[in-house]
Amino acid sequence: MLKFLKGVVGGSGTGIKDLPYNIGDPYPSAWGSWTHFRATSKEDGSPVSVFSLSGSNAQDGHLAAGRNGVKRLRTVRHPNILSFLHSTESETFDGSTTKVTIYIVTEPVMPLSEKIKELGLEGTQRDEYYAWGLHQIAKAVSFLNNDCKLVHGNVCLASVVVTQTLDWKLHAFDVLSEFDVNNEASTGPVLVILSVFPNSSGQVNKATFGETLGCKMLFQRNLDIGCLIYELFSGMKLGRTEELKNTSSISKSLLPDYQRLLSAMPSRRLNTLKLIDNSEYFQNKLVDTIHFMEILNLKDSVEKDTFFRKLPNLAEQLPRQIVLKKLLPLLASALEFGSAAAPALTALLKMGSWLPTEEFSAKVLPTVVKLFASNDRAIRVGLLQHIDQYGESLSAQVVDEQVYPHVATGFSDTSAFLRELTLKSMLVLAPKLSQRTISGSLLKYLSKLQVDEEPAIRTNTTILLGNIASYLNDGTRKRVLINAFTVRALRDTFSPARGAGVMALCATSSYYDITEIATRILPNIVVLTIDPDSDVQSKAFQAVEQFLQIVKQYQEKSNSGDTSGAAGLGMPANAGLLGWAMSSLTHKVKPSEQASLASATSSTPLTSTSSNASAVLVIDAPSTAPVRANSISDFADQPEPSSPTSTDGWGELENGIHEEHETDKDGWDELEPLEEPKPSPALANIQAAQKRPVLQPAVQTKQAVASLRPKNTAKVIKHDDDDLWDSIAAPPPKTVSKPLNVKRAGTTNDDDLWNSIAAPAPATRAQPLSSGRGRGVKPASQSLGAQRKNRTS
Known about the structure:
The chain is α+β, with helices and mostly antiparallel strands and 793 residues long. Among the domains are: 21-108, Phosphorylase Kinase, domain 1 (2-Layer Sandwich); 112-184 and 218-282, Orthogonal Bundle (Transferase(Phosphotransferase), domain 1). Helix 4 (123-147) crosses helix 8, helix 18 packs parallel to helix 20 (455-467) and helix 23 (514-527) runs antiparallel to helix 24.
């Protein structure tokens, strides 16, 4: 019974119950008598590594060395030394024997020999990776020897492990002990273990290096790093010291330093600190790149910008696995915490494109989503320029809740370039947005952009609406599309915008019923058949033919008894995505094209301005475009379809995007009549000054004129045609004049024409009784003084 209880408390041979990790399969190789296992955490399933060492006696020398290694690994911390997580020791009983097992839990690592086989690097890439790994181990050995006054005693291929980011780390501290080079009398309690050396079978035998003192002198001065270099390049385990003289496999650039590390005189051996700083072998592209990333916070903005602009091309020359597992995490962390410059985003996305889809979503997308909240305009531009590289990998929920709220700020940005990039990004993001976001937010912004001051932005807004029409619901399409394309796009002063409106109508023809085609679409397109721009004319003729064909097909079906709507008669909706128009910031217009563009829009004055930043031509429409008017009878018989109440800018504008401009009427439901013959120059100037459409009544002018007319004037019946003249009519003259004399009450006679020029009544000097006591009282002197002050003042 007692044996059973001891077995339960001590655990079994397969592991211990109180260890919060699940131990998996072992690796084929490990250092000394240790066994290296794969393992995972019971709490969250994160990967770890477990090292176990067993002995049959509590006083076994192996166990004493193992306990020393656990103590040293727990207390010594360095970026290039294996990270310690947990340790425990258990006892198991099997009959009369006791088995003691030591467990060490560390970060997930893999033996270096296994990782080298897995990577399979050759040539220059192998040498670069070896240089980076040796550089890390040399820093760890230098830290132990120079800073901690410790001697590792057995740096070899088996005592080096590799992390998931391909970093090399030093472990196997079983024989680690204190020793000061300047004081040979300082011998630690475990120094005698230096006289034993584990061979390949895991057993312990006498070292071939001599007695304890000889071993002490041998290992104290960096001979062990030379042994690691030999085993790494030769691929064989070191058995005898004479094998160190075989240098045929050592790299030529490392050979001089290797020979100095193995000098017969300990005092002349090369210190690892000098090896790190001065060795030519460590000066290569991979070491320099990783080193720059690790000290990125110490670099200035110019160095960062230069480095990250070269990084995309440099990454193609480095080992692919090292770039993905080492450089990519460093780059993502630098961007996330703001230490990297905006050009680093290009390198991040290029490296991420080499990953499988699952790894890209796990390693790159979280960083990209966080970058959308950045206030750095250069970061935002980079995200929008490369959105086609990662947009498809974003989930609909992430786009709707985390990405779009930050992207939408670009719609109202002061930079036209950023507004245009934001607009184009919607082609990728709009399919992932909810109907609530599209109707309540996106369409409001697009309504504003269709009257943007940049003509290219207005054109691309029309193109975007045609491309995302399939993602709108039926009610929104009925309310938005025709108004956006006919009222605004077809009447734009920029000819490419008019052409985009015609193309958008054709691409969305299946969404319109026969009444809309006959009464709202065809009348507006026919006008463009005489457009000054030949390209717009050709597109208009094609559109007229297409829509007339739809009407004919509907008529044929009606005659045959099929009364189905026009939907499905036209070309399939969004059969092909409309191409973007030219960018307002990157398109260069030739002088000949500029002249033709000016003649095409001669009805509206255009101003050509040259951008100092990009030195390209930007054509802007005036802030108040001329209104195209025609007689009221043109649209009098056209039935207006009832549109549901909306707040998106095409319906009744209730809540605008901003609080300002609440009275601006820029919704897509406000139809404007076509153009009448051009009015006289005087009338046109007055209309432009008033900034109001021709057909809108001038309410304020009418009220002002009515208030100035005599009350007894007969009421005149007003017609719509009189409004054009009321706006420029002169007001009636004022009849009230100031009288020449002061009239007293009761003396005014309206019939006396001479009364206005009669001599004034004689003035009297008699003062009122209340002004003083007695008769003939003179005015007080104070009054005279007061008058004098008034005059001099």
